[in-house]
Design goal:
single chain, alpha/beta, Spore Coat Polysaccharide Biosynthesis Protein SpsA, Chain A, 2 domains, 7-stranded mixed beta sheet, 11 strands, globular
Length: 308
């Protein structure tokens, strides 16, 4: 007897893609999902009540049976993504933005196989960035993602992430107060609560350079600091200035009081690597400080001899 594979829902958010000149990108996105070898996919498009003909384009693909769609106003990207979660029928959900695509046709099949085999709650995989000139950046951090950096850096491209729908609902989905960092905030929450993850060693996702986080660095940084402050304050008292000093600074800039709490309750935090980094940095500073003092003494001695 053949066992049916679990349904996977791919959610794509749209708004006025024709007006913004991204029609061809969107069609590539739809085709890349349709061409997947995995046999049980629901592609759900959530449109924010576009008024430029986008809904008519989506309807064309709905008539083909490629997509289902919702068309109604929303308050922002994470509100739209939450609508996708609520309306999804799949056991697993992934989010593929309208200008991104799967260049590997077996990506979903490989991912679901790993999730089912390990009973992990979410997965992540490498991704390649397409630059604005059409070339590919294989040196981008997301080509070699590391979940171990989660508490001070976005660990992977969220378009590669497949998550159990039950987990997303249990964790209250995305915080729709965010405009840029809602995905990172969600991943932090999943890791703080020790949900099981699995790395899928399959480079099948392409994301295009751009988006809110890339185009508005000030907003992106501010929201990351807010995400740290909101999540880490449950563990220990931490200031917004301390949070500002954590982002993309490495293990050594995580306050010791936070590191101790993470060590006690978290599988994703490597306390011994943290200590090793802090000790190494202190040694480097100590050596540099000693060399500077030594050099200053030599200079002062020469000045003294000259004046004498």
């Amino acid at each position: 007897m053949r066992i049916e594979k679990p349904l996977v829902t791919i959610v794509t958010i749209t708004f006025n893609i024709i007006k913004s000149g991204r029609k061809d990108y969107f069609k590539q996105c739809l085709e890349s999902v349709h061409n997947q070898t995995y046999p049980n996919i629901e592609h759900l498009v959530v449109d924010g009540a576009s008024f430029d003909g986008t809904s008519d384009l989506i309807q064309e693909y709905a008539d083909k049976g490629w997509v289902k769609y919702i068309c109604e106003p929303d308050t922002g990207i994470y509100d739209a993504m939450n609508k996708g979660i609520k309306n999804a029928k799949g056991k697993y959900i992934a989010f593929l933005h309208s200008d991104d695509f799967y260049h590997g046709n077996d990506g979903i099949e490989c991912t679901i196989a790993e999730l089912e085999k390990t009973n992990a709650d979410f997965s992540y995989a490498p991704a390649v960035m397409m630059k604005k000139d059409g070339s590919y950046d294989y040196n981008n951090f997301y080509c070699k993602p590391q979940i171990s950096v989660i508490f001070y850096c976005m660990p992977f491209c969220h378009q590669t992430m497949f998550t159990k729908r039950t987990v997303l609902l249990k964790e209250n989905m995305f915080n729709d107060n965010f405009k840029s960092a809602g995905d990172y905030d969600l991943i932090i929450r999943l890791c703080l609560n020790n949900y099981k993850s699995i790395f899928v060693d399959n480079l099948f996702t392409t994301f295009r350079d751009g988006g809110i986080s890339a185009n508005d660095n000030e907003l992106s940084y501010r929201e990351v600091w807010e995400a740290y402050y909101k999540n880490y304050n449950y563990l220990c008292s931490i200031s917004i200035d301390e949070c500002k000093n954590i982002y993309e600074k490495g293990y050594e800039n995580i306050p010791l009081k936070l590191a101790v709490k993470l060590k006690l309750r978290n599988n994703y935090f490597n306390y011994y690597e943290y200590l090793a980094n802090r000790i190494f940095i202190k040694k480097v500073i100590s050596i540099i400080g000693f060399q500077i003092k030594k050099r200053l003494r030599q200079i002062l001695r020469k000045i003294y001899c000259f004046l004498k």
